[in-house]
Amino acid sequence: MDPDTLDTIGRYDFEGQVLSPTMTAHPKFDPKTGEMICYGYEVSWLLNPFVWSHLLTVHQAGGDGNDGSRDIVVYTIDASGLKTEECWYKAPFCGIIHDCGVSDNWVVLPMTPLKCDPERLKKGENHWAWDPNEDQWYGLVPRRKGKPEDIRWFRSKNAFQGHTVSCYETPDGEVVFDLTIADGNVFFWWPSVDTPAGTVAKRNKLHNSTTRWIFDPQAPNNSWVDPVEERTEFSGEFSRIDDRFTTYKYNHYWQAIIDGSKPYDFKNADRQPAASSTRWGILPGTTQRPRRFGRVHEPAFIPRAGSKEEGDGYLVALLNHLDVLRNDVCIFDARNIAQGPVAVIHLPFKLRLGLHGNFVEQSEIETWREKRSRELGPVEPAKESLNATDETDESLNISVNGEGGKGANFLLFCV
Ligand SMILES: [Fe+2]
């Protein structure tokens, strides 16, 4: 994607270094090293014509990342765009791994009990099905020099893992992982396999708690874990931190919350007159929220120029006006959101709901552009479609629109 015009250029495979047919929409960036850690799942490389075309320089028919494979691949890309780590692991089943956590030495892969069964695929049924009897799983893999046998799984009671808050290590090497978790199937359009045919899919009434997990990398495989802390007073999602503190112990995060006790406001076409973006620390915590603020999308954090203090900066979020089909861009003082936005940009049109987004400093783009031109040359879009039989590459549309069920392809930032 062109960073100035936002024009789509094409699919990016890191100049042929990343051959996975699927890729998370939630890579993590290590502020200490500048590395990007990312992964794909349902990535049967043995059946993948794209991989084979590179290995054998010919195209072969086969899978394309939609085959129920239990394979997971985890990559590290350095600040120049060079792949430095790649390891392929096996999951106990093909389940959705939507987001991840990254600490100095580990990657946490939360696997939700939404399963793909190759036999069901052959019958033309839903790709994914909720399994109410399956545990939630957490895969822990080393960030460096990982081997397939290194993956360690932890299990807990059935629930639906949402987006990551953050992840870091304690001084004694345990991995702290914070994320929101729903108490049922968020993706109601993929019900369990025993749902009677013809049943109309209905949205589930759910509560999203914010949970803290601690994983001991030395624990035996398949160890049972329970959250060490579970905050249930808000039902929230789309948590964000000050990204400069990824892998660090942190004190602040911001989260969009829903107050399910409030009736739907038909006049203003909004469910929660009081719903808001909020800020609260997990341990210890204070909570703030703007009073009587409308429904907001996922926020993003913008550091204050020159400041290095955690949370010192601005929070930017889209505010919905569903009654008049319009959005505002609202900018808050991130550590004082209770006072309401310090600036509002009135957009004359409506944007999609629930879009993820990131803030990037112009200077970062320019530094990277210069580094590329000096060391590796300009970035190039992938030379061929991921799916040899479909040159339109529908997967690209998924990534443009945010995310699909199992993540999306990267877009190319070309300068
Ligand atoms: Fe997401």
UniProtKB/TrEMBL annotation:
GO terms for molecular function: carotenoid dioxygenase activity; metal ion binding. Belongs to the carotenoid oxygenase family. Residues 372-383 have a biased composition (Basic and acidic residues). This is Lignostilbene dioxygenase. Residues 372-391 are annotated as: Disordered. Keywords: Iron, Metal-binding, Oxidoreductase. GO terms for biological process: carotene catabolic process. InterPro entries: Carotenoid_Oase. Fe cation binds at H26, H98, H163, H356. Binds 1 Fe(2+) ion per subunit. It comes from Parascedosporium putredinis. It comes from the Eukaryota. Its cofactor is Fe(2+).
